[in-house]
Amino acid sequence: MISPEGRVVMISGANRGIGKAIAGSLYDAGFDLSLACRRPEMLEPFLAGLDDDRVFTARYVAEDKTTHGAWVNGTLAKFGRIDGLVNNAGIWDAVSVDDPEDNEEALDRMWAINVKGPLSMTRLALPSLRKSGSGRVINVASLAGKFVYDGGVGYSMTKFAAVALSHATRHAGFADGVRCTALCPGYVATDLTSKVESTPMSDMTSAEDLAELVRTVMCLSNTASVAELVVNCRADISA
């Protein structure tokens, strides 16, 4: 196991849901945090009572690459290192094969946020992750990145790509101690699933449980690489 003390983890979409839960769990474990979202002021309630020396905040907009570089540079200026990256920010929109008209705008936005943003962040952080000797990348994908449900092809396309990115990242950095995991949960009790009718939120996986799994993966030694972590709240044959 790797001690979290002095290790720095960047988390996108850290203001709510899974990202916020991961941030809380890693902070409590002893990690230093670099947190980002579209509106950094949304992080203020979470930051109350935290040690300013252990936390950095920045603006991250997946569609705006200038924010990517600024976030990485700000993190290095604050801490001098990057040991982990959690690509959590993501969106869902309805794009199916049976759509009567092309829904290019929705598909392009999902692609930009769910795939191109994480790829850009990984490229920018990789030199520091390699230098760490035990760098960790977690891509929050989805069970929809393993199987297609309910005709949601657009979202699944982006999450399949996020899983592919995870394997590519693992291969690219493996010799330098970088390990990458595709986290693939089913329904998680967050605002993203608040309108799901097939499964009550009380039966969904909690964001806190996912955060516990992320913390474990972040602390595993280099000889225990978890390429994919599939988590489900239902007895589907897929998980």
Structure in words:
By secondary structure, the protein is of the alpha/beta class. Helix content is 40%, strand content 15%. It has six helices and seven strands. It has a seven-stranded parallel sheet with strand order 3-2-1-4-5-6-7, with helices on both faces. Helix 1 links the parallel strand 1 and strand 2 (32-37). Helix 3 (65-79) packs parallel to helix 4 (104-132) and helix 4 runs parallel beside helix 5 (153-173). The longest helix is centred in the middle third of the chain and has 29 residues, at 104-132. It starts with 7 loop residues before the first strand and ends in an 8-residue tail after the last strand.
Order of strands side by side in the largest beta sheet?
3-2-1-4-5-6-7
Oligomer class? single chain
Gross morphology is globular
> Proportion of β residues?
15-25%
Number of strands: 7
- Helix and strand composition category: alpha/beta
**What is the CA–CA distance across the termini?**
27 Å
Mean pLDDT value: 93
| Largest β-sheet summary | 7 strands, parallel
Q: Could you state the order of secondary-structure elements as H and E?
A: EHEHEHEHEHEHE
How many helices does DSSP assign?
Answer: 6
Helix content, binned percent: 25-40%
Kindly provide the radius of gyration, computed on alpha-carbon positions and rounded to a whole number of angstroms: 17 Å
Unreliable stretches, pLDDT < 50, 5 or more residues?
none
